[in-house]
Design brief:
By secondary structure, this protein is mainly alpha-helical. It is built from one helix and no strands.
Length: 102
Amino acid sequence: MSTNKREQAEIAREIIYSETLQRLLCSMEIREQAEISRWLSKQERRYSNYLTRQAQDILQTVTLRKALMKVSSIAVLCAAILTSRHNAKEAVTKLSFNSNRK
């Protein structure tokens, strides 16, 4: 009978060991899943921040292009005005030179 009790005790220890091992593996799996979840969240934040920066860069580029187009339009207008003034001065000078020659 003592052999039977020893076998039962051995089986009970194996069951307890098996259950303990199972709980340990389960808690390790839960920790790993939590770690993976944190890592994924971190990656999502990084990617989201990257996309936000890219969108801001694109917006700044578009805004800068619009501003440059306005500035260049104003520069062209100023150049046209200066050219027409210069041409007007030249025309007046030529007219006065021609009228002085007569």
